[in-house]
């Protein structure tokens, strides 16, 4: 079985663009105390600035140790600061590009201090909104240079680029698995890879299970996994299996087959739900799907060789209902 | 439990716009002989011209009786004749409008002869492709007049308008549940109602379970149900539950709660699959979901009153995995 | 030519779900002083609580008079208060339903005081997120009752229901034109109609020009218009014509043909743009499209009767390029 | 100005999956006689088997010479033969993989005979329909091997992989620009590149103008261009600019800026339109957009450096309306 983790901020107050959140906002310490109680969760992802800053690194490290939990990743906060509204390391303004890179370096140092092996880079503002207003080539140069500079300065860290087709920008540079693999390749750095967020992938048009294979073929580039579900056209950030089922089984099968070594992390926005319960549900669903793959690995291998939708349907009925 | 049926043509050669089909095309009689063997299937839908014509009504009626199966609906073929390329009863040409209405009348007569209670009207060509090229108001007048004329001439038949957002036209007049209810209301005829095709509904943006409630509120207007699945953006016409799960349970719950009295009919395009096996799988999946609703009706009633996604998730895990 | 207006809040700080806005937040008075300078703008829409409250009604009324501008609508703020997170007049909690209705009544009174003829009801929280967790029928009863109660208490006001397929909820009850017409009909109130937001309509799957005709056929139910553009899959709230062109001409033609009497109001989220300039651009685009319709009304009437995509294409080339 | 071409088959009878076409089917010779009359068209694309076979190569070559037109590409017909229903060079059956490769070789030889420089490979059947039924990794191995074998045997030909997210399969292996670049890279062959079909790209979620830049960055991999338009969610294969406008200008600007050397070819399915007129309209639209780019190249360069949506909007108004 894989190891499971959660993003700490998912336990807090998640807002939308109209309402500043439907809950009270607990402190980082309160959220951590709750997160560690979720069954099967052995690791935590921390968002820079929100959860982790130079001033609280020591304290957070001690707390994580006391709870016996691993710091799975640090996620740089490059999405809440308005200065990055038109891009971080792809901003037209060189001063902002420098500021962004300096901030990312600081996150790298924090990751080292926390004995955290992975920086999860969701470059949310690096994209564009309108057509005929962006020098795509220039901006991709800057994206490549900034990412490579960072990766080279921290050779012992892994940098996982988390892709998403849109939001907050109308188009992201890291949009889908294949685009992001091309961007990772351009850096020439072995320690730059990819993070799949299942929900981002579901509404990107790609098949998430196939995306795992693309990453494997490009040189074992899948570094991290975020789990959630949605209705297929937007990042609804829902409990796993609220909408889909088969795709998770195909995905977990391909993770195992391609030798994925990372964590399975839950990433939801439980706007109106009890946060730990909603996240805990996702853990239980993913584990159930994982069990199906564990118990039927050879049978699934045969299925995917047969390419017979009727056989697949029969297997799914048996897997879900036992008959 | 509901009664199950299949559309006969689904057992034949289903083509796409590039390839004229991936199978041999069996005769109507051969397909019928196969269809009646699918477990739990008690009724058959026949497509006009393909399966049923004035010249073979008597023969088909006798065959159905011999097999002990019900003729659940006749589906007028208003989609394969090129003369209807720019519309049937909404065509700009009055001669074509008349021809279409005459053909629909003939189908009405065949339905009466077959002791079939329902004409399933998929008005596939009644829509448009380009913007700024259609007199929407005029065409909707013709749509209403033609439908009303037919419904009044056959007061003992039910006419179910099957909606679909697009294909073969880029926009259909009967696009979603709500549009089609408005169209049905305009006719002023009690015997004009709606057919939901789950796949059409899935890629129309609406929630199929809620569509059932809209039809109920408009005066018990849900006359018929077609089942299949897709990946959420097109009419892939796949085996039920290949992609989705929860939505079928919500749908079957609402069917029961609103007192749906019709058939559950399978409607797929098993392009590359063994047809009867693929259709048989759909029957088994729908029945499994139906059992879940039967065995947990009161619990689901409580769930939908509670509006707690965590409870719903727990229920789904239990319903699917028994734990 | 139609009269043009803007929503005041569009000039302020528009945030997304990650960043609390990319601008400073000017005061209502500052925004008003800017809005009235946008060329061709004769009216203003005010959002309840943000812009207009019992304590500033008199002041705002005087300011609008001094500027010589009309208060085109009041938009109740039922989307920023967390108490309405699971619905306003459709909330499971009767106390919240009452509170919501009381708030809406207060907005009705403010509208009367402001000599404003229209309340624009975007019932953003009245929907649901998860399947199998909502009593659709019960909630639609409450939606109908609340809307009808309000409309009857304020018979001299018009209430425009603004539809949107999703966001902030994963599904809205007022989702598309046809659903919302059914909801308006259920109230039995002549003063309940519809507001089209072009962007909401673009990503709802419907054709906006046809939606105008649906509203006309249901009894001249189009009460109000919001303009913006998007990339077709989300409410990007962009400058008009950033992406689309033909659809606006078809839309403005149908507005004229169906005798629309209301305002054309701009509704954008210029997150990273200069607000008044971005809104001013939309005004100029809509006016350009309006001119095309004015100067070619009879020719367009012929086009839509002909149903010839080649003729439509030729017309568009001539209309846009003059050759 | 670029050189313009058309796909010959677009002048014929284009069918959908329900109706076997809305027109009569002219002969190849008749279509060619019509195609050469479309203003500005200097080249023709021929579909293997439909238009060009070993038995008519000499005749077609002479006809093209007589008309003074270039054979721009040969498109292998790997989409109409039912034997390829579950894949051509990715078929699980080695005999079918061999047959497909042999057929592609024959097309390579025909291309050489026709002095045609490009084979346009739309590998329509190489994908899959159902989840949990495909060995993605194995099939991508075969895809790579087959493509590389072909490219190496014909080192003087260019092979353009035309991507499309789905149809006829629910998922294509060559789905979007980035996936297809990765596939091209895997072959290690310089003469394997990409064909953009604008309509495929529009409904793939990517920005077509940015896709051009991705191809350039991967080593000038854009070999060919197909033009058409759609409503944003399906391959409607409509006249250019029926729906979109700005995206074409951004696209043509990026083509020029990245030094694209190929043809601009029209690829439509004028199901119900007069074929040559509909295709001729697309040519005129693309040329109009090309003129805008030609006349304003430096201004657009400044625009894309500025990243100011208001400036872009002003430019578009001026470009389209001259004021």
From TrEMBL, chains A, B, C, D:
GO biological process, one term: rhamnose catabolic process
Chief localization: cytoplasm
Transmembrane annotation, as ranges: none
Pfam families: AP_endonuc_2
Compartments it resides in: Cytoplasm
GO MF entry, a single one: xylose isomerase activity
Top-rank taxon, per record: Bacteria
UniProt keyword annotation of Transmembrane helix present: no
Keyword terms of this UniProt record: Carbohydrate metabolism, Cytoplasm, Isomerase, Manganese, Metal-binding
Domain Xylose isomerase-like TIM barrel stretches: 42-288
Alphabetical list of InterPro entries matching this protein: L-rhamnose_isomerase, Xyl_isomerase-like_sf, Xyl_isomerase-like_TIM-brl, Xylose_isomerase
Name of the protein this chain belongs to: Xylose isomerase-like TIM barrel domain-containing protein
Organism name: Segatella maculosa OT 289
